[in-house]
Each structure stands twice: as structure tokens, then as C-alpha cells.
Amino acid sequence: MKKIKIPLLTGLLALTASDFLQAKQVTAWVIDGESERQYFVQMEKDFNEKFAGQDVSLKIQPIPSYDDAIRAAWMSNDLPDVVMVDGPNMANYIWSGMLQPIGNMLDKEVLEQILPGVRAQGTYSPDNKIYMLSQGDSSVLLWGNKKYLDKAGIVAPQTIEDAWDYDQFTEVLKKLSKVDGVKWPLDFKLGNGGEWNTYGYYPFIKSAGGDIINQKTWKADGTINSKETKSAINKMKSWIDSGYIVPATAGDNRFFGDKTAALSWVGNWMWRSHSQALGDDLVLIPAPRFGEHSYAPNGGWGWAVPSSSNNTKDITTFLNFVLSADQVAKWSTATGYIPARRDSIKMTPMFAEGGKAEMLALQAQEIAVVRPVHPAYPVITSEFGKALKNIFEGADIDTALNRAAMAIDDDIEDNMNYPPFDK
After folding, report:
1. Of 37, 298, 322, 422, which one has the greatest count of Cβ atoms within 10 A?
2. Which of 369, 395, 418 is a domain's end point?
3. What DSSP line would sit under 399-411, residue for residue?
């Protein structure tokens, strides 16, 4: 998933919630992304106009170098009323004591309309309480160039139920490799690195019946190096070995730039670039499967409340406003992310039934797979990502995965099994 990286401003750490706090004002720190910025300006205005007569106002504060800033503010007890949290980091923040549950602050209709994957991402299993909810969700599928598919005589599946399995998809790649103009059948985003290595490829492992950690015992050994996980990785590696995949060194725009790749495995954030470049030749194809079911990534930034916040009444007003159907639809329109509510999907032409990006919304509703919600996730994803990269580059699969399992289990053991996950 994309993050906006902006250098830390001089004196930022001196910027605290108290600097913005006014009487009965809700303060919210937000990410400082370009597409999000315009939405936040309008959302603050909408809130303050709507609640002008209720003696509550909202102050939105974009924060550069966001993760570093909120960690520093938490350590100095200077967090605002509301923060944004990147989903994979949530469990670690909760375990560290940074966040409080928000489920009892949310209206019933919010909880009824929120997508199951978004709710699962924001739920902490030890107490089964919601600590974070997002306005939007992400998903990844196959983006195809219809011109090349037609030349190869390939008819793409139209439904999730008809998604290609491994053998079918491998045959598709083989056929595309023989089409004039196609240098590589698939851009698999090998050069993305970082969190993409888990976010982008974890669904294939889940589809094959594997995982990167046992989500009952919270042990990696025996799961991250299981036969199912290795089978999924070997299948992905077979595409690389066959020359079907854009190399990591070949750049990021082979699908929509010089159009030398026929397919691309990437997320909703590429809609604008892809649609502008391919026009009517752009087709969206459901995620392939390695087992009985296909899965697609999910996750993103969501709203959470620091444990230090006590302005519960006004925070409740804000959360239900920002997670309302109207605001979720506006967030989606501004950012290109999938609306996190079912009713908001119907309000957003691009993702609604018959919309050009309907398949992304269907995947978010039906096959979203949440990355492990555990305090050790930063270590889990780092170790798995390194192992997968090394395997894709030719390292021995057993050695790489056994090493990752050991590193993850050592971290969990060093933290006394992250109680209460030890029960």
C-alpha cells in the first residue's frame, strides 16, 4: 500500500494536542497525503457547519512523518483527541497501551453497514473489541490490456467465482508471452518491496491453505514454513523462472507506460493512471486462486482514539460523522479507495453495481483477507518480506522460511508471548 513520505518539519515534536486545543473542540491528527488533503479541508468545514449550534468544533491537523510523530506524542502524553492509524500497526499500538476501544461510541447503523474486512482489521482479538475503523478499504486484482488478451484469444473471468486457478492462469501467462508487443505477461510489482511483499502476496498463501503465522497459537514455525505456504511461494516463483514477470529492475510502468506488460497485479490506487493510459482497453479481472477460494488484500488508514482522550461525547459525535454514509462516499471520491460501507458503495458511481471499478468493491466485500492482527506484526511482515524477496531472487526456500520462523518466534518469546495473546 502507498504511504506519503514527507520529511519531518523542524520543531514538529514540539507540536502537541494542547497547541490546537480549544474549549469543546475535537482535535484530530491526520496523514499529510496529497489526495487526502483536499478531503480533510472540506470535511472540517462540513463538520463545523453541521454542529455549529451544538457547541463543538473540529480542528484537523495534517502531520508530516506521521508514524514517528504519533509515537513521539504518545511517549510525551501529547496525543490529540483522535488519530489516524495504519491498520497493520493497530495491534502493536493497542498492546502498548496507546489506544482505547471505540465500538461503544459508534452508532448501530455504522456497525451494520461497515464492510466485514474493515471491521476485522479494526478488531483486537483478545477482547474482541473495535479499536479502529477506516472510511475506505483497498484491494488488489489483475488489471488487463484487452488488446493483448484479445490477440491471445483469452476471455477473462467476469466474476469472483470464475477466477482463474493456478493452472489456468499459468496457461494465460504462457499465451500472452507469445503475443507481439508483450515483453512480459505480468507486472507482479516485484520492485515495490516493503509492506507490499506481505500485503500483495499474502492472499496467494491464504488461498493455498497456508499462512505466515498460526493465528491460534501465534507461533510461526510450522506455519510460515509449512508445505502449503511453500507450495504457494513456489507457484509464484515458477512464473518468475519462466520469464513471465517484469523484473524488479525494469521499472514500475511497464503495464501503463510503454505497455510491454499485458497484466498488472496492483491495487485500487492505480485506477487513474491505468484508466488514463489504456482507456477502453482496460479490464479488471478478479484475483486468481491457488486453492478453492481466491483472496485479495485489504487494509488502510483508519480512525482511532488514544487512551488518553476523555472528551468522549464530542469524539463520539465526530466518529459517527466521519463514518457516515455521506462522508465515506466523499472520502472514496477524493482518494480512490473503496468505500468502507455497503450503502456508500451504492452512492459512489465508480464502485457501485455496473461501475467501472465494481470488481474492486466486490472483492472488498467478499474476499478481503486481513493481515494478522497481532502486536508482533511489524516483525512478522519484516521477516516474511525479507524471506520472500530472497526466495524470489533464488535463495533456498527452506532456509529462508526457517530463518524467518525463528526470528518471529524469538521476538514473540522475548516479549513473553505478548500477553494476553499467550492465553
Report:
1. 298
2. 369
3. HHHHHHHHHHHHH
CB 144 within 8 A of CB 156: yes
Dist CA 258 CA 260 (whole Å): 6
- What element of type H or E holds 304? strand 301-306
User: How high is the pLDDT of residue 14?
Assistant: 41
Task: Please write the tens of the pLDDT for every residue from 299-345.
Answer: 999 999 999 999 999 999 999 999 999 999 999 999 999 999 999 99
Q: H or E stretch including 41? A: helix 34-50
pLDDT at 53: 87
Q: Is 300 left (phi over 0), alpha (psi -120 to 50) or beta?
A: left
Residue 227: C-alpha distances to residues 138, 210, 223, 385, 401 (Å): 29, 8, 8, 18, 11
How far from the centroid of its chain's Cα atoms is residue 215's Cα? 19
Domain tally for the chain?
2
108: helix, strand or coil: helix
pTM, rounded to two decimals: 0.92
Residue ranges making up the domain that contains 102 = 12-138+299-369
Sites in the chain below the pLDDT cut of 70:
1-23
CA-based nearest residue to 140, from 276, 275, 264, 277:
264
